[in-house]
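Exercise 7. Predict the structure of Acetylglutamate kinase from Staphylococcus gallinarum.
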Amino acid sequence: MSYIIIKIGGSTLTHLHESIIEDIVTLKQQGLRPIIVHGGGPFINKALENNGVATEFQDGLRVTTSEVLTVTCQTLIGQVNPQLVSKINQNTAVSVGLNGIDGNLVDIIPLSEKYGFVGEPTDINTELLEHITDHFIPVIASIGMKHDTQQLYNINADTFAYKIAQTLSAPIYLLSDIPGVLIEAQVQQTLNAEQIQNHIDSEAIYGGMIPKVQDAIQAIEQGCEKVVIAAGDEPHVIDKILNSGNVGTTIQQ
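Solution. The predicted structure, encoded as tokens:
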């Protein structure tokens, strides 16, 4: 059904190029089904600081205590999500704000107790997404609920977006604060699993980029069409990905 999953990172939201919203609106007008998943790291950090709540990270994930979870939910659902929805609706498109709780969009498998209330998304409600994308552009905050316990969980936004892309066999565009996968300061136009592993072994890919590209390969192996990592401050980056293909890094099998 021509879904396109667009993940907008929290750090990217602060300097998202205006034309990105135009591109998303154009996709909808062309009969495609864009789905936006967003994080909100910098906004959560600020809110935690303002509320005097300590935070820590393990393995790149925010350790989510009950206090951290409360602030995270308030920030993502009450601040970041409506701001992004409002930006899109100013461009005459009709978007709706969602999170993983709405319509039982996603169920949750808790990760290790060491991360607190951090969950892995499972069982995406594709019927709900199909119904909504008939008419609207869903903008999804990365919060979910474990159905049998009614416990809320923080979800890594990348992981949530990948799961939706896998389930819908759709491409995913990760709009980040970097222009793509850099090897010796050069953006790699295309990469596959073998090349990525070779670059990791040689330490040309390192740090926080390792889980990002490893998750991309896993997503592709489980049904995602392709993963594109590109800069969110690049003018008309979505249009360029679709029509020229010479922006960012495309990861495929």
